[in-house]
């Protein structure tokens, strides 16, 4: 496990739960809006030993509802299944943030996860423009894996003014695929690379209009995150 960071207490990484969040190094993709680009390099070593993190978590039993594994792309860590198992043994819930780059690895752990926050960035045919490399089909296979699992699933899409993704069409396709819980996230500039623009002329109005349109798609639960 390449553990790059640890948030000791968070109320927003797993909606409705108080959690610690473990950030794992490395992602095969390269999204322009990534707000953790330092976590993309796959060969960078971790900053924390997993054993120390587990010791910290065991001292928080009773204070936390669970642990979220985030990244980077946490499913690329070969030690993830064992780490999840160790945290479950403490009696803590398991949340997982993933962009779905490794559907078979997601399938291997999904049965041990209580909640999955899955980023779906575009329709399959528009994916490579967003992740700026190949391999986007994997995300939609991961969507099938997540929806077939026993975990609660939140699908989310990040939008920004320069995006070519038709988010309303995407949202309708996700609803048709069986997604019940959807979140629209407005990209933030904080933490992104210098060349990324999170704002633009008329973006406030366009984003508000988009959110209103997606609200009518008919998800059981729809959330807008603009901060
Ligand atoms: S998939 Fe997530 S972690 Fe990977 S580059 Fe994109 S935004 Fe960053």
From TrEMBL:
Cofactor(s) needed: [4Fe-4S] cluster
Residue span, Radical SAM core domain: 14-220
PROSITE patterns assigned to the protein according to its UniProt record, in alphabetical order: RADICAL_SAM
Pfam families, A to Z: Radical_SAM
SUPFAM superfamilies found in the cross-reference section: Radical SAM enzymes
Keyword Metal-binding belongs to the record: yes
Keywords, sorted A to Z: 4Fe-4S, Iron, Iron-sulfur, Metal-binding, S-adenosyl-L-methionine
Keyword Iron attached: yes
InterPro entries referenced in this protein's UniProt entry, alphabetically: Aldolase_TIM, NrdG2, Organic_radical-activating, rSAM, rSAM_sf
Coiled-coil ranges from the UniProt annotation: none
PANTHER family: GLYCYL-RADICAL ENZYME ACTIVATING ENZYME YJJW-RELATED, PYRUVATE FORMATE-LYASE-ACTIVATING ENZYME
Protein name: Anaerobic ribonucleoside-triphosphate reductase activating protein
């Amino acid at each position: 496990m390449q553990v790059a960071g640890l948030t000791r207490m968070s109320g927003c990484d797993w909606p409705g739960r108080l959690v610690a969040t473990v950030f794992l190094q490395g992602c095969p993709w390269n999204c322009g809006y990534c707000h953790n680009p330092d976590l993309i390099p796959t060969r960078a070593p971790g900053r924390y030993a997993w054993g120390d993190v587990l010791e910290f978590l065991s001292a928080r039993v009773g204070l936390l509802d669970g642990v979220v594994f985030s990244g980077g792309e946490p499913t690329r860590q070969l030690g993830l299944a064992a780490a999840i198992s160790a945290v479950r043994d403490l009696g803590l819930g398991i949340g997982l943030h993933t962009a779905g780059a490794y559907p078979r690895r997601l399938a291997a752990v999904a049965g041990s996860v209580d909640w999955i926050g899955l980023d779906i960035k575009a329709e399959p045919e528009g994916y490579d423009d967003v992740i700026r490399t190949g391999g986007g089909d994997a995300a939609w296979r991961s969507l099938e894996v997540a929806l077939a699992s026993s975990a609660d699933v939140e699908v989310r899409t990040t939008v920004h003014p320069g995006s070519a993704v038709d988010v309303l069409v995407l949202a309708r396709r996700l609803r048709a695929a069986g997604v019940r819980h959807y979140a629209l996230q407005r990209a933030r500039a904080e933490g992104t690379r210098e060349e990324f623009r999170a704002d633009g002329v008329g973006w406030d109005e366009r984003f508000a209009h988009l959110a209103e349109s997606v609200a009518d798609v008919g998800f059981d639960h729809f959330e807008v995150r603009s901060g």
